[in-house]
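Service request form, structural biology core

Requester: graduate student, group of Dr. S.
Request type: structure prediction, single chain
Budget code: on file
Notes: please return the result as structure tokens.

Sequence provided:
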Amino acid sequence: MSDPNAADPAAPKPPHPRMAVKDYALLGRKVAEWAKDPASRPRTVAEFRKQLLDVDPGATIPDRITGVLFVQPTWDTLVVRLPTKELIEESEENMNPTDAIYMVPEFYKNTSLSALELLYSRIGDYTISECK
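Core staff response, request fulfilled:
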């Protein structure tokens, strides 16, 4: 006899919460600061949240984030940052339907951005994108 309260395995899973920002360029500027001045980097998630919200009050950091790790390569070493298995699988499932549309942040469509603002926006995007 099946459990009537058991989750339906065919039902769509709720998405994993992901970090989001309203202004990628502001995040990118903050990331550039952290890259150039390691002493400015937050040491806890609470400090990270505060610094992020100070530059982008619309940003969200999911509760699943309980630690923060900064990795900065040397000139001659490539760091390959791997997304979590769960986020890859979730994104793959979302892209499987034939009518799926891959959404990119709006700034990629904004042709009026200066080269520097586009650079900071890209830095912000690839810093938090988490396989989406």
